[in-house]
Design goal:
Elements: E1 2-10, E2 16-25, E3 28-30, E4 39-41, E5 44-46, E6 49-51, E7 54-57, E8 63-67, H1 71-93
Parallel strand pairs: 2-6
Antiparallel strand pairs: 1-2, 3-8, 4-7, 5-6, 7-8
C-alpha cells in the first residue's frame, strides 16, 4: 500500500513557501492524519517525492507509521522458495 499526500511548508512569517509531495509505503498503516494537521516529516527524496518511514502528527501527538512484513517471515519464504527450486531441478534432472 502507498499513502501519498502533500505538505505545505511555511516561513517564520506564515507565508507559504512550497508544497512537498510525501509518500509512505508499507503493507498497512498505524495512526491517522487529517487535512490541516501540522506534521513533522523526515526521509529521503526520490524522484522529487519525500519518502518517509513515519510522520509525526503535531496536532494530535500521534505517530503515523507503515507496517512491514517481519524479516523472519521474508527469510522463511525465501528458504522455502529456494528449496522448491532445488526440488524441481533434482526432479527434472533425475
Amino acid at each position: 500500500m502507498v499513502c501519498t499526500f502533500r505538505v505545505e511548508m511555511y516561513d517564520d512569517y506564515g507565508r507559504s513557501l512550497v508544497l512537498v509531495p510525501v509518500e509512505i509505503r508499507g503493507r498497512g498503516f498505524d495512526g491517522a492524519l487529517s487535512s490541516g494537521d501540522r506534521v513533522r516529516v523526515g526521509g529521503r527524496v526520490r524522484s522529487g517525492t519525500l519518502r518517509a518511514p513515519e510522520v509525526q502528527n503535531l496536532t494530535t501527538g500521534a505517530v503515523v507509521s507503515a507496517k512491514h512484513t517481519p524479516k523472519i517471515v521474508v527469510g522463511i519464504a525465501v528458504v522455502l522458495f529456494l528449496a522448491w527450486i532445488v526440488f524441481i531441478i533434482v526432479l527434472v534432472s533425475g
